[in-house]
Amino acid sequence: MHAKARRSVRRRTAVAGAVVVVIVAGFTVRLVDIQVVNAQEHMENRAAYSGITNSQVLYGTRGTIVDSDGTVLASSSMEYLAKFDPQHVKDIEHEGEDGEEYTVTWAESAADIGAIVGMTGLEVEKIISDALAADPDSEYALLADGLTTEQYRELVSLGLPYLYFESSQSRAYPNGAVAGNLLGFVGTDGEPLAGYESAENSCLQAEDGALTYQQGSDGLIIPGTETTEAAVDGGTLQLTIDSDLQWYMQQMIAEEVGIQGARAGAVMVVEVATGAVRAAAEYPTVDPNDPGATEEADRGSRIFSTTFEPGSTFKAITAATLLDQGAATPETSVTASSHETFPNGAVVGDAFVHPAYDYTLTGALIDSSNVALSKFGELVSDETRYEYLQRFGVGTATDIGFPGEESGLIYPADQWDGQTHYATTFGQAFTTTMPQVVNAYQTLANGGVREPLHIVESCTAADGTVTEPELSDPERVVSEEAADTTIQLLENVATQGTLADQVAVDGYRIGIKTGTAQKSDGNGGYKAGLYFTSILGVVPADDPQYIVMVTLDEPTRVTSSAATAPALQKAMTQTLKTYRVMPSETSEDPLPKFAE
Question: If pLDDT is split at 50, 70 and 90, which confidence band does 543 have?
């Protein structure tokens, strides 16, 4: 190699080495600057951009309550307030998916906001300029109030760090007081306070979500740090109630309470084959839109919280017990006068004066003779009758499980005294609730099989999952023959009893039984002249499909169970119309009232 060429190579090597030295020196100087000279400043800047964790609530909506046909009985609507922090309103730098940075100007964001809330971009910008003109340090400027959930979610999706939200949820009951005693209501804070709003809160309650992000010291969201936990709306609670039938029953019982001068009244309609409650109406009741307008004592449901001696309605249960045990037939007879003192000293009387009659079991129910039923009851042991009363549901709350539902009270047979021995045959010396009495009659009408009563049909979660309530298994209580024969006895009560003309439904065979319960005075005795009256109807008696029960608390115009007859006739008629039940095609088979 020539000397000239060697000198050229050495020169290039030296230049390259010098460049490397300069670069390394530059890095060294920069490193010293970062780590030593300006270390504190860089640490502060790093903190500024490392991000502060922040979040916004994504609100879920409380679920709806609907009737058996899907008619909305209760629903929620969310309203939102959107506000600015003017101190942080500015252009926002973003990084696209391709890594390129771009800027969204305040004017562009204002236009996007305006498109959602129904303003122009200039109108949105003016909100900020006006706020700062009034107070340069202002941290609050109202954008809009009364925004819908859709508008709220669209605004949140813009990811603007200077936009904040407040929510308020309102609960609406579009049918007013219809089923108000069942639905319950929520407080001003949205907390469920009564009825199924409370009992089924696990179905109806929403789960709020959250938008979480890292926020720099300038208030801006740091790109790529956003994570979203979606809100979950509450489920749809479907009840077995028919809102149209419920409306009618509420209007009717309110009218009857007024006519009879009663303290309160109630009507229940239950589907025999399923135990589904189609109406549970009462008066007084509550409008859940304004519960404060109702007396506190009337904001719940007396149907479930009131216990009473069922009285003569449970004479049918005594009859079914005897028939199931083979201890009597409809023609079995006893001799009974209107007032008797029994060997154990117990005194039993009937509601009307009559000589000694040779009553058949049928006749004892037709005339509702306490004395005759006392004698029939002795055909089986106290332990047997106690067992049957339990099997028919006495002393156990129904599967409805309504808040505050009572279970009633019955003492074991070995604790019965001489009077109780007889009183239990005609529905005294133990207490029940209205649903328990209805369930007992549903059992008789269903061929002796007790179906669990229920008002909740299902809960459908936001994801479509359907959950049905856990109910007791159907239970055979008496034989089909005993049950069917008891219904036949009740049909004879409807046609041969004193209320036959008042309860008749043209074209249909029906069965009925009344009850007039004395009211406890709280001191071991009864209130003079005050009664809790009830009546049940089985329709149609030849093919039982519905049980209808009416109660009146302390009627004053007519104090006996006859006070409930007009209401029962109306309730049965409306039920048959509502469900388009075909008229009966056969006639009743009359049974003898007295022994021949």
Answer: very high
Enter the pTM of the model.
0.82
Q: What is the CATH number of the domain that holds 367?
A: 3.40.710.10
- Domain range for 185 is 53-239
Read off φ and ψ for residue 246, nearest 5 degrees: -60, -45
408-417 long-range Cβ contacts below 8 angstroms, 24+ apart: 408/307, 408/432, 408/433, 408/436, 409/307, 410/386, 412/386, 413/381, 413/382, 413/383, 413/385, 413/386, 414/383, 416/382, 416/386
Residues 336, 453 within the same domain: yes
Between strands 141-147 and 357-360, the pairing is unpaired
Residue 59's CATH number: 3.90.1310.10
Give the C-alpha separation, 418 to 21, whole Å: 118
Q: How confident is the model at residue 14 (pLDDT cuts 50, 70, 90)?
A: low
The residues, ordered by sequence, that sit 6+ positions from 486 with a Cβ below 8 Å of its Cβ are 316, 319, 320, 323, 444, 478
Do residues 152 and 210 both lie within one domain? yes
Residues 261 and 223 placed together within one structural domain of the fold = no
Strands 236-239 and 65-66: parallel
Which residues, other chains included, contact 321 with Cβ-Cβ below 8 Å and sequence gap of 6+? 327, 380, 384, 385, 388, 478
**Other Cβ atoms within 10 Å of 340 Cβ, number:** 19
For the record, the structure tokens of 422 come out as: 């007889």
Query: What's the structural domain count of the chain?
Result: 2
Q: Which of 376, 371, 374 is nearest to 351 (CA)?
A: 371
Query: In one letter, which amino acid is 231?
Result: A
Quote the CA–CA distance of 260 and 258 in Å, as a whole number. Answer: 6
Q: What angle do CA 222, 223, 228 make, to 5 degrees?
A: 95
- d(CA 503, CA 193) in angstroms, rounded, equals 39
Which residue, of 239, 255, 288, is where some domain finishes? 239
pLDDT tens digit sequence for 101-154: 888 999 999 999 999 999 999 999 999 999 999 999 999 999 999 898 889 889
User: How much is the mean pLDDT over the chain?
Assistant: 90
Query: Which of 224-233, 252-261, 472-481, 518-527 is predicted with the least confidence, judged by mean pLDDT?
Result: 518-527
Cis-peptide into 174, omega within 30 deg: no
Same domain, 305 and 205: no
Element (DSSP H or E) covering residue 170: strand 163-172
Q: 282 pLDDT band (50/70/90 cuts)?
A: very high
Whether 235 and 249 map to the same domain: the answer is no
Q: Output the six-digit token pair for 446.
A: 């269903």
pLDDT of residue 218: 55
Q: What is the mean pLDDT of residues 390-399?
A: 97
Question: What's the angle, vertex CA 544, arms to CA 538 and CA 547, rounded to 5?
Answer: 40
Averaged pLDDT, 510-535: 88
